[in-house]
Each structure stands twice: as structure tokens, then as C-alpha cells.
């Protein structure tokens, strides 16, 4: 796959190990004829070490050899997240610290949760691009502020905080983009 096509959450092979892409920064050339550079911050799925890469848009990165399995959340404890394979009912565990960013968007009954399996072990978790969550706490809106573009902080049912428009109130279901951590609309 080309470096310019990579997005946050993509898994690729680097130094003979699978890495998951965490951040992408694009640096445009300042001179005519210069190449656009893509700066990647990735995490090794096996050793959990961070790696920084700089690539041109036309550089080719190798796909990682792993399985994607649809799973459901069974339960979480202090150290681990426990998942159940939807097809063959295998159980997988992964350290809670390894998937803390993904778990911000995982509510009970979430469909479309994907476990990344490498050598029979769960090494990562992918959440859907958009999820529906309920607002559990936010300040009340001020009457007459529905037409403005102002936002206020809101805490979702999973404990995640995002900015939402002022007219939303507690108990409403909203759509959230898990890649950009932004409010998309009412559910």
C-alpha cells in the first residue's frame, strides 16, 4: 500500500513486525518539484514500542500478515479487556493499557468491533469509524443559542469527553467520529 493512502488505525509491516498507525502528519514541499512527506507515528503490535517513520507519498509499505476477527466485549477488569470471537467463540484478552484509546468509544453491545490477531494472540483492537453514544453529563443549553456555532464539553456514557453544540442536553444519543474524536450529529 502507498504511504499517501495510510490512515490512522491502518496496520502495516515495518522491520518484520506489524505496526498500527497512530498519527499522520503531512508536510507539503516549499519548493517547486519537492516531494510531499508523510510523517507517521506507529506502535509495534507485539512489543508495544513506538516508531517514527518519514515516507514520500509514493513509497510502498507492506501489508502485515494478521487476521481480523469480529468480536464482542465480554467484560473488562483492572488489567485486561476480554473479548469473545463472534464466529468460533474463542476468547481473547488484551492489556487495558494497550487499547485505552479505543475503549473510549466501546459501549455495551457495540457491533463492528474488530480484534487484530497475530500468531493466535490479540494484539490490537479496531473500533468502527463512527459510534453512537449517549451524553451522560453536560451543562444545560442557554435558550436562544441554537443558531450559533458555539460548543460545550460533554461527557459520554463511556467516560470520554468531546465538544458538542450548545443545544444538546443529557440523555441524547449522538454520533461520534472515532478517528477525529469529533461530534458528527444526532443519532
UniProtKB/TrEMBL annotation:
Pfam families (UniProt xref): EFP, EFP_N, Elong-fact-P_C
Q: Which domain of life is it from?
A: Bacteria
Q: What are the protein's GO molecular function terms?
A: translation elongation factor activity
Kindly list the biological process annotations in GO that this record carries.
Answer: peptide biosynthetic process
Q: Give the UniProt entry's GO cellular component terms.
A: cytosol
InterPro entries, alphabetized: Elong-fact-P_C, NA-bd_OB-fold, Rib_uL2_dom2, Transl_elong_fac_P/YeiP, Transl_elong_KOW-like, Transl_elong_P/YeiP_cen, Transl_elong_P/YeiP_CS, Translation_prot_SH3-like_sf
**Chain ranges of the Translation elongation factor P/YeiP central domain:** 68-123
The alphabetical list of record keywords is: Elongation factor, Protein biosynthesis
- All copies of domain Elongation factor P C-terminal, residue ranges: 131-186
- Which PROSITE patterns does the record cross-reference, listed alphabetically? EFP (PS01275)
As for family, the record states:
Belongs to the elongation factor P family.
Q: What PANTHER family would the database entry show?
A: ELONGATION FACTOR P (PTHR30053), TRANSLATION ELONGATION FACTOR KOW-LIKE DOMAIN-CONTAINING PROTEIN (PTHR30053:SF14)
Name the chain's protein: Elongation factor P
